[in-house]
Specification:
Layout lengths: L3 E6 L6 H9 L5 E6 L2 H8 L13 E4 L4 H13 L8 E6 L2 H16 L4 E5 L1
Parallel strand pairs: 1-2, 1-3, 3-4, 4-5
Length: about 120
């Protein structure tokens, strides 16, 4: 399977290594890019404000606890014909063990280029 690029939108830098590890385990190789909020995500995706050379992600991973923030970003993506085709995975996790299982299902969705929402409680 070919490598894919994931854009992680996560405000907490402490979670980035865990997500990166989850994406690198298994048979698929991936490159993860990270931004901290919706505004930076849109700048990245539109290749604005210092992101001019950014690769187009194969999927976007949202790991917020704020469903309003995630819905706002997904709404912007849906309104842009160039960006609406990018699969979005929304992850809300509160327990480490469930988070790992959720990341595993998310990796499967990424490999299949599918939208996926996962809640781990």
């Amino acid at each position: 399977m070919s490598a894919f690029t994931v854009l992680l939108v996560e405000p907490d830098p402490r979670l980035v290594p865990q997500v990166r590890e989850s994406l690198t385990t298994g048979e698929t190789s991936s490159e993860m890019r990270w931004v901290t909020n919706r505004d930076f995500a849109m700048q990245y995706l539109r290749r604005e404000e210092g992101f001019s050379g950014a690769p187009r992600p194969d999927a976007i991973l949202l790991t917020w606890n704020s469903s309003r923030e995630a819905a706002s970003l997904k709404g912007e993506l849906d309104s842009d014909p160039k960006l609406r085709k990018i699969p979005v995975i929304t992850l809300k996790a509160e327990a480490a063990e469930q988070e790992h299982k959720c990341h595993s299902r998310s990796r499967t969705a990424l490999r299949n280029h599918k939208h996926h929402a996962c809640t781990a409680a």
